[in-house]
């Protein structure tokens, strides 16, 4: 129903990224607790138009259970606030706080959810996400896994993406780093690459291009090295799935229909995995880890200074 920005009460910060801050808030009239993404509005009308278009896509995505639900937005002279359902955390924070890999079974469910969400966006709304990474895959303690942040997703214009500026460097597909002059457009398979990198990072616990201090170093390695792969401690079907996502030649890389036919997805579409139970345990463990390492890292920091 009609509501006012003054109805929102700020509770705490959930995180921040390149586009702004995400704040936990209470909607006073309904007493509902939600997440609000606050972004600065630039005077750039093109960008503002894109933000509104993205919000419309998310608002229309109520029928996909693997997409974080958008509840509405507030637009002021200086800011855009996007109100979303509140999730517990994202896989980026969980991995960093846990300090150890995410089990393959959980990643099976993450893969099913992410591929469903991405193929839904493409088929229903003609959108490619363009910023698939662990911090944009959220989870809650009931075991729901959902994709968020269409902040920079672009509508497919003439079935091809035109804007090439956005996306987190570390997860960029080769064709986005160095577009082929004869075929400079990229498609949903750039998101498939980002998913592959995300899965390797979550499965091994470390970013697959380690020891890079600049974006340039990462991008050079993405172009120059063989793609990352999973060691043989993982199941053959998981290794095969990741291998397909990380085919460097875009034209050889599968799209969603093909991915959905692979054994790894087929297995986790039907297999029962209690993601909720795991999430509760993992969050407790992460808190314990944070409790023991925080003072130590403070000492390290003060020693350095
Ligand atoms: P980025 O995704 O680039 O890290 P964002 O500004 O999109 O930056 O998000 C910042 C953090 O806020 C995320 O890492 C995530 O942990 C948290 N967050 C985002 N949306 C929600 C949500 N709906 N519920 C709970 N936490 C969220
Ligand atoms: Mg995000």
From TrEMBL:
Residue ranges constituting the Protein kinase domain according to the UniProt record: 8-265
Family listed: Belongs to the protein kinase superfamily. STE Ser/Thr protein kinase family. MAP kinase kinase subfamily.
Name this polypeptide is given: mitogen-activated protein kinase kinase
Organism encoding this protein: Zophobas morio
Lineage of the species this protein comes from: Eukaryota, Metazoa, Ecdysozoa, Arthropoda, Hexapoda
Residues of the full protein shown: 68 to 372 of 677
């Amino acid at each position: 129903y009609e509501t006012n920005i003054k109805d929102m009460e700020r509770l705490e910060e959930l995180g921040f990224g390149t586009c702004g801050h995400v704040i936990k808030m209470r909607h006073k009239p309904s007493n509902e607790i939600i997440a609000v993404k606050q972004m600065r509005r630039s005077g750039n009308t093109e960008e503002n138009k894109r933000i509104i278009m993205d919000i419309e896509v998310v608002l229309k995505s109520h029928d996909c259970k693997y997409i974080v639900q958008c509840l509405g937005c507030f637009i002021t002279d200086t800011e855009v606030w996007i109100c979303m359902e509140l999730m517990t955390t994202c896989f980026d924070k969980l991995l960093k706080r846990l300090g150890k890999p995410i089990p393959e079974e959980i990643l099976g469910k993450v893969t099913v959810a992410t591929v469903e969400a991405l193929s839904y966006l493409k088929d229903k709304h003609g959108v490619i996400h363009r910023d698939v990474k662990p911090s944009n895959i959220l989870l809650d303690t009931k075991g729901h896994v959902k994709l968020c942040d269409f902040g920079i997703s672009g509508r497919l214009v003439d079935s091809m993406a035109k804007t090439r500026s956005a996306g987190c460097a570390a997860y960029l597909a080769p064709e986005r780093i160095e577009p082929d002059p004869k075929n400079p457009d990229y498609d949903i398979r750039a998101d498939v690459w980002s998913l592959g990198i995300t899965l390797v990072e979550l499965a091994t616990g470390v970013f697959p291009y380690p020891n890079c201090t600049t974006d340039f170093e990462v991008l050079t390695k993405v172009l120059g090295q063989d793609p990352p792969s999973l060691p043989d401690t993982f199941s053959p079907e998981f290794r095969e799935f990741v291998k397909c996502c990380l085919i460097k030649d875009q034209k050889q890389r599968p799209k969603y229909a093909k991915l959905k036919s692979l054994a790894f997805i087929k297995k986790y579409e039907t297999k029962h995995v209690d993601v909720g139970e795991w999430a509760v345990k993992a969050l407790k463990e992460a808190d314990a880890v944070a409790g023991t390492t925080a003072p130590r890292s403070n000492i390290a920091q003060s020693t350095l200074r």
